[in-house]
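Form 7-S
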Amino acid sequence: MKTAVIGGGAAGCFCAVQLKRNCPAAQVVVFELGPTTMHKLSLTGGGRCNFTNSFENVSSLEEVYPRGFRQMKKLLAAFNHKSTIEWFSLLGIGSITEPDSRVFPSCMDARKVVRSIQKEMLRLGVTIECGHRVESIVPAPQGGWTVDGHLFDNVVVTTGGGLLRALSPLEIETVKPVPSLFTLKLDCAVLKPLMGICAPDSTLSIQGTAFKSRGPLLITDWGISGPATLKLSSYAARFLAEKQYSCILNVNWVSLNQQEIKDWCLNLKASCPKKLLTSTCPQGIPERLWKFILRERCSLREDLRWAEIGYKGMNRISGTLTSDPYPVCGRAAFKEEFVTAGGIAANAVESSTLECKKYPGLYFAGEVLDIDAVTGGFNLQAAWSTAFCVSAAIAGKRG
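Output:
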């Protein structure tokens, strides 16, 4: 049995290892366009490699997999985060679960993770062809597949959306790829002096839609970043692409409602009447950000005391803290976390094996599928789970 794996990223290399473990006599060739395998994996998690998530804080898969959650439910039943931790443990890589449920290797070194997988591929006899751009994938007349003229029994495609053009003659159902996981550019110069400030518990929403996310918000020199922004960009990836990344973003700086803020103001007015508004920040809001909100967004004097604040002033504070609008004028890629929403449609593949319904022997795993997630290790878990199920399906053909 001879299998071509197109794409030497996380999913492709994982799949190659599993294929050789399941079928030691099989020939497995990995074709990678770049000069080395798993370059993107070596950068993930700020170089620490957030390779999965404990899923402890996940109430439904749809929260973390905006696209593909139904597929992931079945795939995770076969290979979940516990399986991933055990798989890496067998390579000598321990794990550490952080309070936010992200799972990292105990070495905190993505490059060591990459080297361990590369070493395992070499030990098992996987052939690696770097610097190879695959130009054609076509069914062979005698059965199997030809990849750039070379005959294979099976082909596993694990690249991003770029290879979809090479597959276009096969007319496999796809979903148009669009960017996901990006920061937002804001058309608002007044925020720029606040770059580097973080609001630890904010809620973002897109005006006129149901898209909403919650988490830390980081102000940057071009707009906003941080987990809340990245999560929103994932949920609203297609909507934002259709709107050409132009919309109104509402920021709830404290993730509270207006009445809760009004009650907070009334309590301070009663208990600390002589204190300046600027001296008492809402929970979690840095002092510089609080002064900016009062001065620039509420049009209130910095020397104003709580005794002097009236109901109109309280309404301004509560309205601004819970729904502060900013115009979005573009997006920016978030370093190595950038992913693509879209790819091979769920209807085009078998749900358990990820084999193409139209073309037996052609499989898909990783980013090429219309499965993507928010940050936190979920995208890499999708890579491992899809690759595992594909390798098991191919090995099952032999048995």
